Amino acid sequence: MTFRSIGSAFRVSAWSAPLVGLAALAGVAQAATPADPSGTWLTEDGRARIRLEKCGPSEKNLCGFVVWLKVPLNDKNQPRIDFKNPDPKKQARPSLGHQLILGLKLNADARYEGKIYNSEDGKSYDVTVWTEEPNELTVRGCLIAFLCKSQTWNKTTDVLPGQLTGPTNGAGGPRTDPEWTPAGKPAATGTTGTPGSTASTAPKPAAPKPAPKPAAPAGAPAAQ
């Protein structure tokens, strides 16, 4: 995931100060009603589609999942896995369907901020996301406070081959990290092991109980 640098120098003259003040007030008013960024977004480099949706307690957080990859297979023609993850338990998980945006929270500017995981280097970064245009999402990532870059993601409504369209943690859908799994729901359903597969492993039916033997008539000899 590649970000571009943001920020530029500018001057504010004395006569323009009132206009700046009005713009600041307008920004505060706009921040009071944040736009909902839920939906599926194409990353700026075109290599992935990310589905954003509300999560966490009372669905006040924002989580994001990789639901499509332009190149889903590695050099060995096998599904890509998160082998650079610092957690050994996650290094074998498929790249398609993993959670990369981890429960962002609204900040004072009514933008969502928190952590984003980059599977390309196995590192997590501070991130802020917001949308001001119906079909554009600004994603601003920071390695450190003064080293921040941004991307513009575009909203998508179509479905491409290989795209996960099922519900989160359901058949044919992405998977949450354990800390963001809704209470009472498993982190992932049983599948055939193929990312995007909708075939689930159904529980085996319980064996039927044998019918009770009829009571012997009174006075009859007991069975040997």
TrEMBL record:
Domain annotation DUF2147: ranges: 39-155
Protein name: DUF2147 domain-containing protein
Keywords: Signal
Alphabetized InterPro entries for the sequence: DUF2147
Keyword Signal: yes
Species of origin: Methylobacterium trifolii
Low complexity: bias regions: 181-204
Span of the signal peptide: 1-31
Lineage, uppermost ranks: Bacteria, Pseudomonadati, Pseudomonadota, Alphaproteobacteria, Hyphomicrobiales
Segments for region (Disordered): 157-224
Pro residues composition-biased segments: 205-215
